[in-house]
């Protein structure tokens, strides 16, 4: 009897292993295919991350090359900088009231522009730009004509 039992157990084990082997073979093939696909996807992700990094760098370079400052750019392409206006007024030797008289504004407006608290209107901006290219003598003549 023990021989039949051991033979029967061995045969059952053999058949079970045979069935499992056919099932596991399909799973192993699917696993290998999935691993290969994962490797391809990881490579693609790293390529895309590199592309994003390069694009970000090029965009940051472009913006640093030509900064478009809303405060320094106004209508008509005329630039206004508070420090530039203050240095121009000092170069011409004018008080804030006299400078305001030349550009059609008050002395307090000139102080506010120089402090950066406000920006001049387009008409005043054109007058400020016109004062950039003239000298002290012409400024004195214009002031004498206005007073």
TrEMBL record:
Q: Which residue intervals make up region (Disordered)?
A: 52-76
User: Which GO terms of the molecular function aspect are on file?
Assistant: DNA binding
Q: Which domain of life is it from?
A: Bacteria
Please name the source species: Scleromatobacter humisilvae
What name does the UniProt record give this protein? HTH cro/C1-type domain-containing protein
InterPro entries from the UniProt entry: Lambda_DNA-bd_dom_sf
Read off the lineage from the record.
Bacteria, Pseudomonadati, Pseudomonadota, Betaproteobacteria, Burkholderiales
